[in-house]
Amino acid sequence: MRPLVICGAGGFGREVIEIVRAINAVAPTWDLLGVVDDGPGDVPRAHLERLGVAVLGPVASLSEVVHSASASVVIAIGDPATRARIAAAHDGCDWATLVHPDATVGHDVSLAAGVVIAAGARLSTNITVGEHVHIDQNVTVGHDSRLDAYSRLNPQACISGFVTVGEQVLVGANATVLQNLTVGAGAVVGAGAVVTREVAPGTTVKGVPAR
Ligand SMILES: CC(C)(COP(=O)(O)OP(=O)(O)OC[C@H]1O[C@@H](n2cnc3c(N)ncnc32)[C@H](O)[C@@H]1OP(=O)(O)O)[C@@H](O)C(=O)NCCC(=O)NCCS
What we know:
By secondary structure, this protein is an alpha/beta fold. The chain is built from four helices and 23 strands.
């Protein structure tokens, strides 16, 4: 079993605990030492207690905690920019890549360090996924697509074939990006949007068609 620390104890952090448990149920892989988090508030702390997971310290202590335990770490914070900032501040950590056993990852799909793939996600073929990308529950990613570092696809997002999702993009729940399009770095696609044309970097689009 490899020691593992989760950075972030918010909603997604606790969902990642479930991903770790699901992986271990199939093949004992990770010894979850606990989470680092700058809160957590009373409610998340109570939820963690019910999950039997310890709080090891604040986020600033991440490098120290993981190095002293020779642990791998995964950043389970939804906001792309926050994830990028923490990864840069703790360069040199051994970033774990976690794939829920109920996700489907096809051939020639490369997953970089720190990627998290949740239950029900489907990645077909010839796909490149950059560092610390989060692919949440029931997302589909079509052939020949590229997801750049720190992006996040919320539940049920549908990325068609030949799509490029730039760095630190957030694609909202149930949004669809049509084929051959690029969503520029730092853009936000609102929940339920249908993206029918290129999305400029740093912009927010929403609605059907997305504007
Ligand atoms: C699009 C989004 C980024 C906009 O956030 P925001 O700038 O804070 O927007 P606001 O909440 O201030 O709303 C501004 C307007 O946009 C509308 N709006 C917000 N989100 C929308 C969406 N997804 N689709 C269509 N309209 C939306 C609001 O109704 C409001 O309209 P009004 O001005 O006529 O009242 C955000 O609402 C969103 O969809 N984020 C993704 C959330 C998600 O995926 N959640 C699932 C988590 S698991």
